[in-house]
Amino acid sequence: MFPFCFEWAWDISHIVFMGGLWYALSIIGAGMTFAIVKSVFDCAGHDDQDHGHH
Amino acid sequence: MNETPLIPAGVKRCSKWQFSLWMAAATAVLLWGVYAMYLIWYKGLNQTNMNDAYGFALWIWADLAVIALGGGAFFSGFLTYIINKNELKNIINLAVVIGFICYSSALLILAIDVGQPLRAWFIFWHANVHSMLTEVAFCLSCYFAVLTIEFIPLILENPRLDKKPFLHHLSHNMHGIMAIFAATGVFLSFFHQGSLGGVAGVLYGRPFAFREHILIWPFTFFLFTWSAAAYGPCFTILVTKITELITRKKLVKDNVIHLFAKISGWMIITYIIAKTIDTIYWAFVTAPGFGFTLMDFYASSTYNIGLLFAEIVICGFIPGLILITKRGRENSFLLMSAIILGVIGVSLNRWVMVLQVMAVPVFSFNEWYTYMPSWQEVATTVLPVAYGIIVISLAHRYLPVFPQEKELNPID
Predict the structure, then answer these.
(1) Which residues, in sequence order, are bridge partners of residue B217?
(2) Mean pLDDT calculated for residue range B316-327
(3) What are A's interface residues with B at a Cβ cutoff of 8 A?
């Protein structure tokens, strides 16, 4: 549920519950994005090194 | 097909036909459960013996029990990545696999129980923000995502997958930030384990379950989290020992098992003291406030006072005392007895907090309610066991689950 949904109310229950959910999902999403993007760069760097060796 | 490139280097596995036979037996049981699941989804909850008195039944017990037993994953993650108990890196892979199995099983059981899997997303979109079960649903699904993320690097360490540069780097990079995922897992587990206990503790109309509160949280909130952290490691050790027995190999060094058992022992002892205090307060203050005596809750031949004794003394103080003493945990018979009692203890606690709560009469004109699960309920509850055996067997065969295996079992 997002704040723009008709069921949303700006009360403590919605902020704590939904805020907790988004907080957890943000950490999971950011962590995985970081790992995937870094792996792509690592691969590219590794390939460059390989070309250099050849 | 030649399996050799799929099997981790430096370890020995049973022959393919032995493995196939083993998997066929587990798959047969799994299919029995899948057939029962199909019947329930196709024909509805009339396939169960649940009724107006038992809205929560065998499945919810199984759900709570597997979630508690899977608690070894978040607690070992906490000990390894936050407290830096590096010895536990030798057992954490198995704890993660067990956690993954337990939580996916819990979600599967819920999908069967809810009966409308296509509407599962309603709980996120039309969330009832006053319900502890909403918190459970949020944390359970998020924590399952965390466990999947913790499992992925282990899968990527399979020799064939590890040869792919991107997957090799991905595994390495995920390992690098695993502490963040582990910390998130601890946060999520604290709340969903607690809220499962909180659901029982706020049942004002069920004096057997109702407990006093700290702010909005009943005592059962804290006791459930505590017990999952205390007894979850027992299940991880038990599965390790069963795997060692079946493969006839030592897979984890004794010092690792003893450390994990010692931590579990101290958690059990502190938990069971807190549980005893909670029980005494409930028996002498809370329940009389509702007009009940302690024995009113144990006046059935099935649910007698022996259950309370078994939960607190036999499956609480005894395993706790064994595990905190050096001689106790270093004696293999006592260690096995303690971890088996621990696993039974936490399962019994969840049974009592789900099924006895439903059975106890609330009004003087009520009888004790009885309930016997249908074969479909039993089959769908056995399903996760077969599924767990299959996943652990595949993981052990093709993945480096036990880092010390090579050292402990050198190949000539």
Answers:
(1) B214
(2) 97
(3) 1, 5, 7, 13-14, 16-18, 20-21, 24-25, 27-28, 31-32, 34-36, 38-40, 42-43, 46-47
